[in-house]
Amino acid sequence: MTSLILRSLLLFAVVAISSGNGVRYTANWTSIDSRPLPVWYDEAKIGIFVHWGVFSVPGYGQFSEWFWQSWKGAHRADEVEFMKKNYPVGFTYADFAHEFKAQFFDPDEWAEIFEASGAKYVVFTSKHHEGFCNWPSADSWNWNSMDTGPHRDLVGDLAAAVRKRKGLHFGLYHSLYEWFHPLYLKDRASGYKTQEFVFRKALPELVNLVMTYKPELIWSDGDWEAPDTYWNSTEFLAWLYNDSPIKDFVVVNDRWGNGCYCKHGGYYNCADRFTPGSLPNHKWEKCQSIDNRSWGYRRNMKLIELMDLPTIITDMVYVVALGGNYLLNIGPMEDGMISPLFEERLRGMGAWLGVNGEAIYSSKPWRIQGENTTVPVWYTSKNNTVYAILLEWPSNLLFDLAAPKTSEATHVTILDDPSVPLKWVSTAPTGLVVLMPDIMPVSPGQGWVLKLEGVV
């Protein structure tokens, strides 16, 4: 065990570069959590999550990305019966990898869709809990996309395509644990007193991803079974923030060990689909899948199980009004195609942001996050401007806002037609009533934005 720890420490020493004149962080949560969040992340607001791997081949189950665990770990009846009906006796999960060919994967096409969605960052699966690496990992012989299946570097290809798009940041999802890796199972059996999996697999691969692809965001997962001390999380993050080539701009989430989420890390994911009821006191992100049942692609998904565009817009606006980022997930097919249904939703979101993005990007929560005097409204702010985002159109054209306090400089416009000022009257002691346009602007989703200047 001592030799493994020494090898891990040596690994960090070998890849270390000059840390510059900035603050150096020590390997404890008090120090790690004191690092300021790089500004780009809060300003970005919208990201696209991509779950893609060997699990995309069977593409079945309520959580298709958990297919192997559901089939061979939990022995769920649906997955067991699916395999009996469709595959011969003796077929193994590893056999699916040969069908993960990605023959239609065009990273430039993906990047164009992501850019058209209005997203400012992409988080791509480097490795899910099944352990299959979407890059040529030297620590995952024959269970990676170069040796098996596509025979290409999926991470590298997409990173290059995304970075051609101005203003689009590239991040990587990485699962710390692997369901059936022998070294992980051995460590777990020891009560996590041994760390062979960490030093021989998890940490070397994380460092390899950082050094090779220089992701601007690391979305850690698979942390819940073992404590952060097992994963050596604070040691890795201290190296990441002090000496790695991405130390000045990398952003990380909060999944670094059992009990860490919503407590430690750069920003908080907390639970999947985390939706706080009030303004959190720490930067956070909601990850939400268009397919309400799964993160990975399901060939048996139904239209009723997908979020429609108005629901996506409503969800996104709520998250941003409460200071969060919105990470919207898709699961591509095993051949590399993105379902037209997913593409339609992404392009629709982008069309809405093309009109109303001024109220979203680089915005801050206002002193009041929402109200429902006339119709549901969420507020954002930027500098001295307040944005009121309506999720319904007022039926009588009179729109009452109770929270803003007007002044002689108050000016009201709608982002669909910002050149035409809207008439308004103030109410006491605060608030105003706005006369909305006679004709409701055609919204590419749901929601319209009033720009309120000169209010407090």
Radius of gyration: 24 Å
- Known CATH architecture of the largest domain: Alpha-Beta Barrel
Topology as a string of helices (H) and strands (E): HHHEHHHHEHEHHEHHEEHEHEEEEEEEE
* Residue runs with pLDDT of under 50 for 5 or more positions: 1-7, 13-21
Cα distance spanning the termini: 61 Å
User: How many helices does DSSP assign?
Assistant: 14
Shape: globular
Task: Name the CATH superfamily assignment of the largest domain.
Answer: Glycosidases
What's the domain count? 2
Biggest beta sheet attributes: 7 strands, parallel
Mean pLDDT: 94
CATH classification, class level of the largest domain: Alpha Beta
Describe the model:
This protein is of the alpha/beta class and 456 residues long. It has two domains: 2-359, TIM Barrel (Alpha-Beta Barrel); 370-453, Golgi alpha-mannosidase II (Immunoglobulin-like, Sandwich). Helices cover 29% and strands 16% of the residues. It has 14 helices and 15 strands. It has a seven-stranded parallel beta sheet with strand order 5-4-3-2-1-7-6. Mean pLDDT is 94; it is low at 1-7 and 13-21.
